[in-house]
Amino acid sequence: MKTTMLKQSKEIIGLVLVALFIYFFIFWDYKQFQSEFSIPQQWLNLNTIFLSIVIEAIPFILLGVFVSSLIQIFVSEETVKKYIPKNAVIAVIPAALLGAIFPVCECAIVPVVRRLIKKGMPLHVAFVFLACAPILNPVVAASTYFAFQSNPSILVGRMGLAFVLSMIIGLVIYLFFKNSNQLKLTSEELVGNEAQKQETLQVNKWKATFYHASDEFFDMGKYLILGAFIASLFQTFLNREVLLSLGSNEFSSPLVMMGFAFVLSLCSEADAFVAASFGTTFAPGALLAFLVYGPMLDMKNTILLFAYFRTKFVLCFIIIVTAIVYFGVIIYQQFI
């Protein structure tokens, strides 16, 4: 009874918020409000950046939760386990290859990976997919090609580094965590929750898919908004001139660009064009650090990772990805 009332109250609050949004969108006189109240330009910029991040991410979040729901309803645990090699080392290769054909960006990858882990995919294999899918997919490859037509080595370097480094990341995760459960819910609780959902959803599979997708979307939405707000704060108030002054060094510039990638939280389908704008300031190695690190780890997906995985594991994952991408780029740029 309490659960039903809580669900109904959430739906009412959601409808009220949507109605308020529509009202202000149609009837609110923004220019009059701005003329009556002096708002600092920086806060106006923050508002613009925040909205652009959210609007850019929402379609991909929708894609991610829908794919996650399709996996939940139509893919059995037996199917997932059947196509994953038993050998932990060999298993990272098909995960990386799957990322090359799966059009999911970093905005949408977390719910998909979480669902695959719930279905029985080993932890390290799922995180290989998380690391490489936002970079290796065909849409990102095309955008990188068009952004760097004058320097195709950036495309080759981005795809090659993402493929190799994602597998190394997966193997290091396996070394430290094996196949331990790092989701915030235990395996027993997850099984219980899923069984309860199946009992309450006495509908056909497609309706169940949309139910799951809507639940996950609103669950993840609050973390997306939080991540977008934090990212917009950094973009607005961070002194970029200081960071650019550090970018002239061969060893510090990749770190600077990795920091930029984390803070800017750009969608991997569009980040190549931003990276291209830094082409006259940073060396190719630093640009590759930006293009490889950002899709693997940025402000948005870090918030989501902390929400759904254990804190210790997420902190270790951040350190592992940062170290491997940095040293991978340092080694790679010796050959370009």
From TrEMBL:
Localisation: Cell membrane
Domain of life of the native organism: Bacteria
Bilayer-spanning residue ranges: 12-28, 48-75, 87-113, 125-148, 155-177, 220-238, 250-266, 272-293, 313-335
Keywords of this entry: Cell membrane, Membrane, Transmembrane, Transmembrane helix
Keyword Lipoprotein attached: no
Family according to the record: Belongs to the UPF0718 family.
InterPro entries for this protein: DUF318, UPF0718
Membrane topology, from the record: Multi-pass membrane protein
UniProt xrefs under Pfam families: ArsP_1
Major localization class: membrane
Protein name (database record): Uncharacterized membrane protein YraQ (UPF0718 family)
Organism listed in the record: Metabacillus niabensis
Keyword Transmembrane helix belongs to the record: yes
